[in-house]
């Protein structure tokens, strides 16, 4: 894939405290024992807010961004789409936001590789976009019975994506 910054977007799934902070409600779930997440997400109140448009209590909550990401996510140029409902973007405005900006290629990274990242990969590809995945900018749960979510995702990334790159390779492509 050839990248052009005018037609290529970085899509980052789930850069929230609940997934990426040691204080997040899924830190132990994600990194220590993993498992089937949807039911557990609701049980533990992951990303809970009073309503979809209500930001009361959002700042520094589990649904808020990690502090180190805020300068990039709140830079005035970054488009933040409405949240996805479970794993994929079918019920949010991601595809609309990409099309409104003339985007034809997506570079995909984020959490969780075999769930949200892979679901976004499949849907964005089905919507007609070329998609590259930054493999070392994703991660997934590992579970003794359910298996290695990251390894499963890598297999599917290689089968489905137009390219599977490292962060270094991605930056080199944009610099070229």
Task: Provide tags for this entry.
single chain, 176 residues, four-stranded parallel β-sheet, two-stranded antiparallel sheet, 8 helices
SSE order: EHHHHHEHEEEHEH
Strand order of the largest sheet: 1-2-3-6
Structural category is: alpha/beta
| Sheet having the most strands | 4 strands, parallel
Q: For the record, give the distance between the C-alpha atoms at the N and C termini, rounded to a whole number.
A: 12 Å
The number of distinct β-strands equals: 6
Beta-strand content bin: 15-25%
Helix content: 25-40%
Mean pLDDT: 82
Write down the Rg: 16 Å
Helix count equals 8
Question: Which regions contain 5 or more consecutive residues with pLDDT less than 50?
Answer: 31-35
Q: What would you call the shape?
A: globular
């Amino acid at each position: 894939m050839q990248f052009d910054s005018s037609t290529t977007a970085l899509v980052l799934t789930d850069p929230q405290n609940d997934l990426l902070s040691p204080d997040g409600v899924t830190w132990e779930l994600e990194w220590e024992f993993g498992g089937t997440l949807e039911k557990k997400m609701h049980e533990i109140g992951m990303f809970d807010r009073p309503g979809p448009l209500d930001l009361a209590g959002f700042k520094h909550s589990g649904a808020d961004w990690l502090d180190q990401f805020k300068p990039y996510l709140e830079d005035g140029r970054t488009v933040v789409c409405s949240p996805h409902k479970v794993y994929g973007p079918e019920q949010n405005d991601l595809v609309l936001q990409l099309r409104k900006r003339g985007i034809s290629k997506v570079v995909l990274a984020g959490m969780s590789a075999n769930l949200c990242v892979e679901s976004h990969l499949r849907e964005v590809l089905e919507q007609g976009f070329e998609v590259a995945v930054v493999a070392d900018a994703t991660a997934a749960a590992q579970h003794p019975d359910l298996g290695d979510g990251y390894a499963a995702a890598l297999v599917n990334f290689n089968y489905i994506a137009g390219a599977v790159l490292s962060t270094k390779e991605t930056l080199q492509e944009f610099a070229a």
